Amino acid sequence: MRLDRIDQCRWRVPVGAVPGMHVPGIIYASEDIIQQIQQDASITQVANTATLPGVETAAMAMPDIHFGYGFPIGGVVASRVEDGIVSPGGVGFDINCGVRLLRSEITEKELLPNLSELVNRLFRDVPTGVGSRGKIRLSNEDFHQVMVDGSRWAVTAGYGTEDDLEATEAQGKLDGADPNLISKEAVNRGRDQLGTLGSGNHFIELQSVAEIYDEKAAKAFGLWQGQITVMIHSGSRGFGHQICTDFLAVMGRAASKYGYNLPDRQLACAPVQSDEGRRYLAAMAAAANYAWANRQCMSHWVRQAFERHFNQSFTSLGLNLLYDVAHNIVKIETHHVGGQTKLLAVHRKGATRAFAQGHPDIPSNYRQIGQPVLIPGDMGRASYVLAGTDRAMSETFGSTCHGAGRLLSRAAAIRAGRGRSVDKELASRGIIVRAAGRETLLEEMPEAYKDVSQVVEIVHNAGISRKVARLRPLGVIKG
Amino acid sequence: MDPAPPAGVEVIETTADVGLELRGGTLADVFLLALAGFSYLTIGEVVTSAETWRDVELDSDTIPELLVAWLQWALVQFDADGWIPARAELELRGRTLRARVGGTQFSALNNSVWYYLKGVSYHRLDVCENSDGTCVARVLFDV
């Protein structure tokens, strides 16, 4: 497929690369990364998303892009509410998969002597992989409130603080969630999974702040070198997966009803303002709220583990939420495009919101800096804290990358790692890992991913977010 | 995985996900292989033990969509109840499926999960019935 280089960080997929494109595709990538991207069909997928009705300005892809179903992972598609579409495929199966970061007042030196003990405690205390059920048994009434109130339900139930809400994207709750639209299958899958990590690439990671790039922003975010942080990566579990499934079927029929000629069945969609579109947004909001409550409850188990380990309260340990971001979601947002104010359905599938300083949706204590952006890497290298920028607002609808992006398929990673002992290799580098799944460590080994530092360098150089701090893994819990 | 997949079932890979290619003597065989393939992907073993039975009736607009619905049903039984299908008595009429499915309870003590399958996708979904009655299907899962 033809690609035109715009500058050091951007490539254009021209209109006409596939039939029916309304706008070009824009891919953020270096020369090295674009060669990796070209090894799968994700560039064609970017072009395909540019054919969707009402797509605004360009279909975009971040440097961690890889092949997904219909929409690529790492894609941003903004569709006009007025005449555009909403698509479950533009969000993905794991609705509101996202990341949160807890900071602390604990130093790396204080933690290291008993690191493995804390890792083991976290592995025991936070339900992880498939087959484990959560500690929370939801009544019908509670489940209803989780869907409607998200993190607010968790805090009210004792799983967090008011400050946690302020430090969560959308305060951990999307308005408009409608429990009446949720299938019994989704409820059955979600009932016992609240407060559980899940499997695959989901993790809890103990980290140390290894490097500060922006002192002013780091200070505002409460970060300092040698500090211990805890990152939690999880989503809406089976509940959200089922809602995506249910609405892929609904949208498949809707696409025919509205006469959409889609190049891929997984791009199934409906007008934002149609009955199908409104129903999807209301159901997706319920799943997004469940995911925020899920990460909030896990934060509670993490805090309890720290309290028992250090024999101090989590408040005296300073284990406060820095921020929580979604990276699989569609949100109705106002953006300024070509001198006009437009209401858009911004699909971020494997992409993170990165609003600039001054935006009213950023917590007041970060508003002079820009929204904190949390970028998890693989378990052997690094993760990053970035900040949103004006350029993200003007170029990418306030969006940036979401992680490293897979390089090897899971089976290829297992083949490549056969005979190796990933846990011992990581331990020799001072990283303690625990995993529930028998092949998880091989599937998730660092070489299975792009180097997140390369990915972050691109979005930093492109100006769509800026580096604040690098976090080094010390202990990793995998599902 | 060490144990081979069931005969007629091939595991296919994408960058982040996984799928099945199924080759059966009939369309019904392919649906049975899909069930066996689902259980194999989920716990990495060919499941044969049927301790309890569940009834299911599904219909869809097309045969490929019926295959998605069938696998999605199996996926929900596992994710909601930890119940793994082992075998089925199956009746296919047009785009309607009725089945009595035998399965067993997943135990984290005795089993571990290979792939936690989040959903069944329509991407590259295909069911091809040949003139001699044999059938080939391909289906991808989100992991």
Commentary on this structure:
The complex is a heterodimer of chains A (479) and B (143). By secondary structure, chain A is α+β, with helices and mostly antiparallel strands. Chain A has one domain (4-478): Alpha-Beta Complex (tRNA-splicing ligase RtcB). Chain A has helices at residues 31-37, 42-49, 108-111, 115-125, 140-149, 151-156, 162-166, 184-190, 215-221, 237-257, 275-310, 390-395, 410-417, 422-428, 440-443, 452-462; strands at residues 4-5, 10-13, 25-28, 59-66, 73-80, 85-86, 98-107, 203-212, 227-234, 270-271, 320-326, 328-337, 340-349, 352-353, 372-375, 383-387, 399-400, 432-435, 466-478. In chain A, strands 7, 8, 9, 11, 15, 16, 18 and 19 form an 8-stranded mixed β-sheet that branches. A 7-stranded mixed β-sheet of chain A has the order 1-2-3-4-5-13-12, sandwiched between helices. Chain A has a two-stranded antiparallel sheet with strand order 6-10. Chain A is globular and about 60 Å long. Chain B is built from 2 helices and 8 strands. By secondary structure, chain B is of the alpha+beta class. In chain B, helix 1 (27-43) runs parallel beside helix 2 (63-81). In chain B, strands 1, 2, 6, 7 and 8 form a 5-stranded antiparallel β-sheet that branches. A 3-stranded antiparallel β-sheet of chain B has the order 3-5-4, with helices on one face. Chain B has one domain: Archease domain (Archease, Possible Chaperone, Chain: A, domain 1, 3-Layer(bab) Sandwich). Classes of the chains: A alpha+beta (479), B alpha+beta (143). The A-B interface holds A 40, 66-70, 73, 92-94, 129-132, 185, 188-189, 191, 198-200, 238, 241-242, 244-245, 248-249, 252-253, 264-266, 268, 406-412, 436-439, 479 and B 1, 11, 13-18, 44, 61, 65, 72, 76, 79-82, 106-108, 111-116, 118-123, 125, 140, 142-143.
